[in-house]
Amino acid sequence: MSFMINFINNKNAILVFQTAQLCLITFVVYAFSIEQELGLASFMALFCFFFPIHSVASIRFKSLIQQIWFLAVLFIFLSPANAIKVLLVSGILLSILFSRISSSVKLLLLSTAAIYLFLCRFGILYSLIPPHALTVIAGIFMFRSIIYLYDDHHGAQPKNLLDKTSYFFLAPNIIFPLFPIIDLQTFQRTKYNTEPSDIYQRGINLIVWALLCLLFYRLVYYFGLPDVFKLKGLFDVLQYLGSSYLTVIRLVGILSLSVGILRMVGYNLPEIFNFMFLARSFSDLFRRINMYWKDFMMKLVYYPVYFKLRKAKSAHLITYALIITFILTWFFHIYQWSWILGSNPIRGTGLIYWGVFGVLAILGTFKERKIKAIPKPTFANAFRTMFNISLVFIGMCLLYTIWINASLTVWWNMVRIAALDGPVVWLKAIGLWLLIVLTGGALGFVWDQIHTRVSAVLQKSRFTLAPVALICLCFLWALIRSNQKPAIKQYLDNVALNSNDIRQQNEGYYESILKADISSKLWDDGIDLELIKQKKWLTNIWLNSKDKRLSPLEEATGVAQQERDDQSKFYQKDKFLNFRFKPNLKTIYKGKPLHTNSEGFRDKEYTKQRAPNTTRIVLIGGSPDVGYGVDNDELYEAIIENKLNVELAQDSVEIINLSLVDLGLLSKVYVLEEIALKYKPDIVLLIEHFDDADRENDRLDRILRKDIVIYPALKKEFQRINITEEDIRMRQIEEAKIQFLISWAYHYFASTCKNNNIKPYLVYVPVHGNSSKYNESVKMFKGAEFEFIDLKNLYDVFPIDQIRLSVKDNHPNALGHRIIVHGLEPVFRNILNIK
Amino acid sequence: MIDNVKQKIMEFIISEKNLLPSDIQEDTPLISTGIIDSISTLSLVDFIETTFNIQFEPFEVDQENLNTVQKIADFILRKQMN
Questions:
Q1: Which of B16, B37, B42 is closest, CB to CB, to A306?
Q2: B56 interaction partners in chain A (CB closer than 8 Å)
Q3: Which residues does B74 contact at the CB level (< 8 Å), separation at least 6?
Q4: Which pLDDT score, from 0 to 100, does residue A403 have?
Q5: Are strands A683-688 and A614-620 parallel, antiparallel or unpaired?
Q6: Positions of E strands within A26-116
Q7: Cα distance between residue A315 and residue A304, in whole Å
Q8: CB of B14 within 8 Å of any CB in chain A?
Q9: What is the mean pLDDT of chain B?
Q10: Which one of A266, A547, A628, B82 has the fewest beta carbons within 10 angstroms of its own beta carbon?
Q11: A224: exposed, middle or buried (C-beta count within 10 Å: 0-12, 13-18, 19+)?
Q12: What is the pLDDT of residues A493-540, one digit of tens each?
């Protein structure tokens, strides 16, 4: 014991101990691939280097070291060119903020700059600054400049220039665009306001808590969250509702991580969350969930509005102030996500969520005003509290799932599925709920009796909790590393998406619907793809990883080309197809140059009439075959065509690429009949990636949502097997019927080719992530007169990360396309009789 | 005089929140611990304004001025002197 006391009193020993904990945290982040999309492992590795230097430095150098840390992160995580751009823009904004001009002039100048940057972020104005660098600038200034202006107006700004810039240049903000709203007064007040080692340990403890939250989120994400379109009854629906709401814990993890890191550089910031799942009312929830946000709203909206209304002697002062506060809460939420995503995040379901939540929170506030007494710790009160907690939890589950679903129809369909279950199932569910309330009430009662003692024990053991948790996590990692079950491996590697996100990705990528929803792994898709790879490169250098493929130069050039996609910029409306590119496009698409011909396909111009001595091959595929995310000349079709034509002296071959984004099998039939036949091809290659039946249903649903007509041949089949549009929208088509349609499409495709003297080939090109439907799909075209070319084992020897675009995008990258060339070239040579 | 100010504030908080006199001391954090929330803060502001004849500005409603009884008393005296 005396050893421990001596140890804790020895500052150097504590510093070594805390640095060791930080190294262990970095290892856990790396081993569990925590927030690898944001490059957290690299960031923490760098912080392991800066923390001890910052800790031993005298107080007057600490701000300077903090700024050097910020610059190091900025230059390493962005390319040097982009880091300089960020610094230049930040310099302009800071010089306005720190200047001695009047507040109203500052406000005017800053608003003008913000509008300009906002238009650049949305791609409306051309900007030399790439979108992800704009997101970093937005992360730094979107809230803190408002708070600074407010405090500056009231004469409460820091005096020293380094202290002023320290408030803006916070290193974690570079990797976390979703960052806590740090209040300037709190920031200044809490700086080294107690023993440094205590502040650092509070930081470590919060970081470890954040890691536990993020690992729990992943558990829910992979194992708890069922596919919303595969819910079978009430208990499935309940699982979906509960799991969806629990995924908010990712927000707790990300924001707590940022606060924990800031504590480790001396800012003794308060807690940001207060066990939000234990909220007893909606107003209590508003207080517990992201308390920094609540304080921001109180300071800048609620109190000023209240005082203004009081001066005007308005009746119902508090009601009006609360209504305005909630409307502006919604507005600031939209404002924040617009900057992060660079697209409009306003959705009808979001409005419903915020509207209902606001009303419930206001009602809760008034109810609470009437209750003054703090309830005594009796079992009845504990039971009542648990009952209220359960009601708020259920309410939030319902509201939250409205918010995260793109349409109310999907949500309503889920409610209908639950309602279809009989009274016995409902009684079981009510029984389960009562059991949870009773058990929770009993636990709450016990907690009321012991919480003072437990808090004292926790306070005493504040230096040992985090190391114990970290060692346990290391053991857990070793334990699950040895388990090779795919689901467990997926949990550990964190590289796959769950079924809901795969669908959202399909919709999101193709329709530019990005989710302002932290529960999804896709929320940061809009930020940057190349940056992620760059971060991975950093991780590999520091932590001696396996992937050494990416060079900084490759990354830097990739970063420069990043551009946000905008549906209206690329797509034209088609009578029957979900997406068709605009004709004669010359643009950047998914960060790569994209040219289309006069028909709106990514290929060169071909005449309808075939030239003599020319073999004409039409290729009909989906987004991998459009060359999604690769350069025009990196696309496998272009490489093969060029290569063969060099070898063919007298004759020539034309490979006409009629592939389109989000082109399912059912739509490929239409492309064949209405477009391909006009080119009078000798051969048609139907490129298949074997999606599951659900995905065809998704595509049909998206077509109907856009009021696009189902083309006549398919419509006829719908009528024959009794499928209505309502069935599609409600995802109520029996799987057998979808399978029938897929089989019909294969047969119809092949027979149409035969009737037009065209030789049909069906080529299977796997795309990582959805090859599980292989056996099922092969049965579907049995009997159709295709020549089947099976490239099933194409990628077998390649690690997945080397051949796809990103962690969250399985489309083949340039190397993936070269591998397809390797697989397809012999097939073409065979068809064309070239040795 | 300051003791009188503190006494009145303590009495108000104890009655408003139904606390026991032993529950709060001069240096007990009020806002950061949640003893007084945003709505009760405004009741406290109204009470201070009417009792001590001072006027709050919106930006003065913060932890710096209101987090403990001691801080509230210091703030009141500062305002009265100004």
A1: B42
A2: 307
A3: none
A4: 84
A5: parallel
A6: none
A7: 16
A8: no
A9: 86
A10: B82
A11: middle
A12: 666 666 666 665 555 433 333 344 444 554 444 444 333 333 333 333
How far is C-alpha A463 from the chain's CA centre? 34
Give this complex's ipTM.
Answer: 0.91
If one counts every other C-beta atom within 10 angstroms of the C-beta of residue A12, the result is 8
Please report which helix (H) or strand (E) contains residue A572, including its range. Answer: strand A571-572
Query: Could you tell me the pLDDT band of residue A94, with boundaries at 50, 70 and 90?
Result: very high
Tokens of A406: 């793109």
Cα A646 to Cα A642: distance, rounded to the nearest angstrom? 6
**What is the residue type of A796?**
D
Residues of B in contact with A307 (CB under 8 A): 56-58
- Cα(A358)–Cα(A5) distance, rounded to whole angstroms? 50
> Exposed e or buried b for every residue in A359-371, given b needs 16+ CB within 10 A?
ebbbebbeebeee
- C-alpha A254/C-alpha A578 separation (Å) is 36
Alpha-helical regions (H) of A78-177 = 80-98, 103-121, 131-141, 144-153, 161-168, 172-175
**Which residues in chain B are contacts of A368 at CB distance < 8 A?**
39
A34-47 pLDDT tens trace: 988 788 999 999 99
- How far is it, in rounded angstroms, from Cα A396 to Cα A271? 22
Question: Residue A199 in contact with residue A268, Cβ under 8 Å?
Answer: yes
**Looking at residue A231, what DSSP letter applies?**
-
One-letter amino acid for residue A621 of the chain? G
Of the candidate ranges A112-116, A518-522, A590-594, the one whose mean pLDDT is the lowest: A518-522
Environment class of residue A467 by beta-carbon count within 10 Å: exposed (0-12), middle (13-18) or buried (19+)?
middle
Segment A140-152 shows an average pLDDT of 94
Q: Does B38 touch chain A (CB under 8 A)?
A: yes
Q: What letter does residue A709 receive in the DSSP assignment?
A: P
**Chosen from A307, A309, A451 to mutate, greatest number of chain B CBs within 10 A:** A307
- Between the CA atoms of A682, A687, A693 and A698, what dihedral angle is there, to the nearest 10 degrees? -100
Q: How far is B77 from chain A (nearest CA, A)?
A: 20
Nearest CA in chain B to A296: B62
What DSSP designation does A233 have? S
Question: What is the distance of C-alpha A827 from the center of its chain?
Answer: 39
Residues from chain A contacting residue B37 (CB–CB below 8 Å): 287
B82–A contact, CB cutoff 8 A: no
Q: Which residue has the tokens 């294969």?
A: A746
pLDDT at A483 over 80: no
Contact status of B23 with chain A (Cβ, < 8 Å): no
Write the single-letter amino acid at B71. K
**pTM of the predicted structure, to 2 decimals:** 0.75
Non-local (6+) Cβ contacts of A48 within 8 A are A19, A22, A23, A26
Mean pLDDT, chain A, integer: 83
Q: What's the average model confidence in pLDDT over A148-170?
A: 88
pLDDT in tens, A176-185: 888 999 999 9
The confidence score (pLDDT) of residue A509 equals 38
pLDDT tens digit sequence for A708-737: 667 788 888 888 888 777 777 666 677 778
C-beta neighbour count of A95 within 10 angstroms: 10
The pLDDT, as a whole number, for residue A168 is 95
Name which of A303, A368, A369 is nearest B58 (Cβ-Cβ). Answer: A303
Query: What separation in angstroms does the CA of B55 have from each of A226, A514, B49, B61, B75?
Result: 56, 47, 6, 11, 11
What contacts A628, CB < 8 A, 6 or more positions away?
A: A590, A661, A805, A811
| Distance in Å, alpha carbon of B73 to nearest chain A alpha carbon | 19
DSSP character for B68? S
Q: How many CB atoms lie within 10 A of CB A443?
A: 12
Tokens of A305: 């509005």
Number of helices (H) and strands (E) in chain B: give both, helices first. Answer: 4, 0
Residue type, A744: W
Nearest-Cα residue of chain B relative to residue A367 = B39
